[in-house]
From TrEMBL:
Source organism superkingdom: Bacteria
Domain (L-asparaginase N-terminal): residue spans on this chain: 4-152
PROSITE patterns: ASN_GLN_ASE_3
Name the record gives this protein: Asparaginase
Organism whose genome encodes this protein: Cognatilysobacter xinjiangensis
Length: 162
C-alpha cells in the first residue's frame, strides 16, 4: 500500500459531548490524530466530506461519498462512518470495483476512554491492505461483506444476516 485515502463522514466515532447542552454532536474527524499518535508506517490523506450522524445520511450524501472515492487515484480507501447506516453506504460503494474500500466506525466516541474506535480502525487498516478489491465493513473484530451483515441495535453490535 503506497498511501491510504481516508474519507470521513462523521458518526459516533467523531462525536463530542457538550456538558452545557447535555448533547452529543459530530466534531472534527478523529482518525488522523489516532493514526499519528500510533505512529503508523504508511502515508495517509484524510478527506472530510460529511459531519453527520449516519441516521441523517441521505442518498445524495451516499452518492457524494461514492463520487469522492471514485475521483481518488489511490486503490486503498478507508471510510469512517456512523454504524446505523454503514451497511447501506457500503452497498452503494459496491459499484467501485477497482478499489479496496473498508468502512469502519465506533459504537462509542473515539474521545471516550474504552472506545472501540482504535481497535476498529486497526482492524480496518489491516483489512484494506490484505483484501482484494471490493467493499468491506470492519466492526467488532470481524471483516464483513456488506450483503451479509446487519447492525443489531439492541445488542449494539454487528452480526451475520441469518
Amino acid at each position: 500500500m503506497d498511501s491510504l485515502c481516508i474519507v470521513t463522514t462523521g458518526g459516533t466515532i467523531d462525536k463530542i459531548y457538550f456538558d452545557d447542552k447535555s448533547d452529543f454532536q459530530v466534531g472534527e474527524p478523529q482518525i488522523g490524530r489516532i493514526l499519528e499518535e500510533l505512529g503508523v508506517a504508511f502515508r495517509f490523506n484524510v478527506i472530510p466530506i460529511l459531519r453527520k450522524d449516519s441516521l441523517h445520511i441521505t442518498d445524495s450524501d451516499r452518492e457524494l461519498v461514492r463520487a469522492t472515492i471514485a475521483a481518488q487515484p489511490c486503490r486503498h480507501v478507508l471510510v469512517t462512518h456512523g454504524t446505523d447506516s454503514m451497511v447501506q453506504t457500503a452497498q452503494v460503494l459496491s459499484s467501485l470495483t477497482d478499489k479496496t474500500i473498508v468502512l469502519t466506525g465506533a459504537l462509542n466516541p473515539a474521545r471516550f476512554r474504552g472506545s472501540d474506535a482504535e481497535f476498529n480502525i486497526g482492524t480496518a487498516v489491516g483489512a484494506v491492505q490484505a483484501l482484494p478489491p471490493g467493499v468491506y465493513i470492519a466492526m467488532n473484530g470481524r471483516i464483513w461483506e456488506p450483503t451479509k451483515v446487519r447492525k443489531n441495535v439492541e445488542a449494539n453490535r454487528f452480526e451475520p444476516i441469518e
